[in-house]
């Protein structure tokens, strides 16, 4: 009887591991392997360009909102650059040796990259949220949950923060009807859309692809706004 229970336990563990390995295939279309790394690199460059423009604008205006924006995208750009490095390494192993280990049950270098990006996003989005909170109440400390199934949980937390930021940006645009405010609202909505799409990527690979393009378009909208304001 004990032997049967042992075999059953081993079968359950093996099944869990297999499900974790299948998750990488379910989330990311094979044809998209490597393209998301290019998107991360592009987004990192745009993010750092946004930070540079926002720092220059802060030097002219002295507004804390511009400082928060610059700090947020500096942190976010570095997080995306780190994710570019680790995902690029992971895909290199796949193309050279046929090994892939994305979102499985083992903590690998790809997980480290996503955690660094996730934590940097939490900090960066907190700065963005503070730009819409009165200074006397500008204290924001997101809860961080460490779990093996981090992918969905982390993106849901990031979506919650960005939804708050996007809501306030849309509210500000509805009050002002200004083009620059509209670009800010569009940028934050698209960034929130990125995190909203990723938890559902296990059901549809297209949502993984669409989410990444949404992220880049959001960054582009914000960069266009800063270029317009800086003229």
Description of the structure:
This protein has 231 residues and is mainly alpha-helical. The chain has one domain: Rhopdopsin 7-helix transmembrane proteins (Up-down Bundle), CATH 1.20.1070. 78% of the residues lie in helices and 0% in strands. The chain is built from 7 helices and no strands. Helix 2 packs parallel to helix 7 (205-230). It is globular and about 50 Å long. The termini are far apart. The relative contact order is 0.12. Residues 1-25 have low confidence and may be disordered.
Question: Which features characterize this protein?
Answer:
7 helices
Compute the CA-based radius of gyration.
20 Å
Beta strand count: 0
Q: CATH top level?
A: Mainly Alpha
Residue share in β-strands? under 5%
* Share of helix, binned: over 70%
Report the order of strands and helices.
HHHHHHH
Intertermini distance? 78 Å
**Helical run tally:** 7
Shape: globular
Largest sheet: none
Q: How many distinct folded domains?
A: 1
Secondary structure topology:
Layout: H1 2-27, H2 35-61, H3 64-97, H4 109-130, H5 150-176, H6 179-197, H7 205-230
Summarize the structure in short.
With 231 residues, the protein is mainly alpha-helical.
